[in-house]
Amino acid sequence: MQKIFLLLCIFFCATSAYAQSDFKILIKSAVQKSPVEGATVSIAAHKITSISNESGLAQLSNVPAGKQTIKINHVGFQQKQVLVNFPADQANPLEIFLDPTEEELEEVIISSTRTSRSIQNTPTRVETIELEEIDEKSNMRPANVSMILHESTGISVQQTSATSGNASIRIQGLDGRYTQLLKDGYASFGNFANGLSILEIPPLDLAQVEIIKGPASTLYGAGAIAGVVNFISRTPRTQGDYNFIVNQSNVGQTNIGGFAMKRNEKIGYSLLALTNFQKPYDVDKDDFTELAKSRDFTIHPKIFIYPDEKTTLVIGNAFTQSQRTGGDIFLIKDGADVNHTYFETNKTTRNTSTVDLSLKSGERDLFRIKSSFNYFKRSIDVPNYSFKGTNYNVYTDISYLKTLKKQSLIFGANLVYDNFREDDVNKESRDFNTKTAGIYFQQTWDASEKLKLESGIRADLTHYYNRLYNKTDFFVLPRVSALYKFNDNWSSRIGGGLGYKTPTLFTEQTETFQYQRLLPLNNVSSEKSYGGTADVNYRTSIGDDWLISLNQMFFYTRISNSTILLQDAEARFYFANTTSPVNSLGMESNAKIIFKEYFKLFAGYTYTNAKAKYLPVIEDIRLLPKNRLNLALLYEKERIFKFGLEGYFTDRQYLYNNFQTPSYWEFGFMAEKVFGKISIFINAENFTDTRQSKYKSVVNGEHTNPTFDDIWTHTEGRTFNGGIKLKL
User: Fold this and answer.
1) DSSP assignment of 644-660, as one string?
2) Of 187, 281, 644, 704, which residue is the least packed, with the fewest Cβ within 10 Å?
3) Domain-embedded: residue 285
4) What is d(CA 227, CA 233) in angstroms, rounded to the nearest whole number?
5) Residue 152: inside a domain, yes or no?
6) If you average pLDDT over residues 98-126, what whole number do you get?
7) Which residues form the domain of 70?
8) How far apart are CA 482 and CA 492, in angstroms?
9) Burial (0-12, 13-18, 19+ Cβ within 10 Å), 207
10) CATH number of the domain within which 627 lies
11) Mean pLDDT computed over every residue of the chain
């Protein structure tokens, strides 16, 4: 009997020590009051860990009796600790509100899918470059967004001119004309306006960059075959934000800019102003510029009006003026003479006016009207040739978001008018017009806690024409995507759709020869595509100190009815359609490791096998490395000190003359020290001095009539810069 009594005592003691088998915690954002998914909840002393689900709920099991310290961690939020005496009676989960870190106070919304869902709960695969990284890259290159995109996995910035530095954005190896650039959802950077776009988008007012890779025409219409890059501006808060930057580099670039924003109950504003100066720079002493002499100015005011809690009206106007002159450095500095006559001058004026009206109904329903008018004027001058034109673009979009218990429905329609006029009107005038009317529908459905589905369809009627021909196309563009969460650590997304691109004269190839001897479009039809992406994501934490995130993505895109550039018997260039397809397939691997929120390691690998079947002998798409590796290590103590090291490997590439380039590495570092409201930064980009002229001179022939090789790596070599930032 005594033995039985002793066993019962042991049993009841053990039961009491682990009486609290299930303790639930509900984790929410202190700012948005919304659930926080992916937060790590742990009791370190007993190695008990849980991850919050999409509802913000985490569950701890088998917690020993006594006072236990529970730690809650999530990247972007301050750590929270609570002391709980176990066993604890619990009728409802314990609510914990996490405070964002100072750099994450702004509300982050994934807007590129037209819903307000969190990125963890969105079936469409969206990559984000957040404010912290944008701030780092702004230190490296405050003038434009090229550095932000150049160092992203699966994206390359392709320089198209050896003298002026013009560039375009490639996603998954496809030509820049297949990537649609947006600013706050407005498509103002297409066709003629595309050539200098990334050189005229400053990063100082950006909150984040959202990237959708693969066909996205169902969401945004023509031009989104390779993907979409959406630059999202910051919106004002009641606490004013005033940022200023001064930067100077060893290559002769000076940047002076500022961004300010503030709001009260009824009205708010934001203002971006930036001016950039670049001296002509010739690093290899071949008498031709690697960096053109340039000056540009941007001013972008926006007014935010809040008549009531459910209505927001945003009115903005962005104005940019730029002039850059490259070529013979003696001509640029001292003027032309008999031996120094070559130059390339680009002058641009860009003005974009926008209106955005949002009306909320109910708790989460939204009616929205967006409209923009874009004016872009550009002139290109080289010896004995001038190309001048003006591009007008009008965009209007009306949408309604209806949010139900387990699904979101979006109904919308838009109108797009694009008109290019060449200033020198003659029989070879290359004027071109495109008019598009479209309607679209999208459904996002929470089929279960683990499965999220998104489907959409767009119908576009597009009419494009010039004096030689006119054509009307009708496109029906379906798209589907799915998110499946296997558990708290594993998830997968898969999606695909159709796309199209209306004809254009303005491509990477035609940009390289300034559209000389280029004939007007004639009987050229729209290009069509289909493709998709699939990925697997793994995320876990190890104790309180380590956070690991891994992502493996596969992609495929096929373009039919491609437009290709040909030459006639008189050596004039023209575009024609081909039945031979373009195929791009490959994969991206990404890893992110964070230790104690101080050390962050990023690694990205891209394999791209893109082939154009119409190319003779070698079908590989030109100027495209099959393998690319990105590495970055960052050490940061928030608002105190920041230091980063970067390394990038680029594989061999085929040039248009069928020769292959060598592979190469490039390295960089940056450091920033904060003294209260003032920070000082230094940066060394490509400090190992990788540049094309070390392998072969980029300039060929005589000074007075040079030709230029394809650009496949840095031309300016190493770059050092430093500056001061003021945040009030």
Assistant:
1) EEEEEEE---B-TTS-B
2) 704
3) no
4) 20
5) no
6) 68
7) 17-100
8) 8
9) middle
10) 2.40.170.20
11) 89
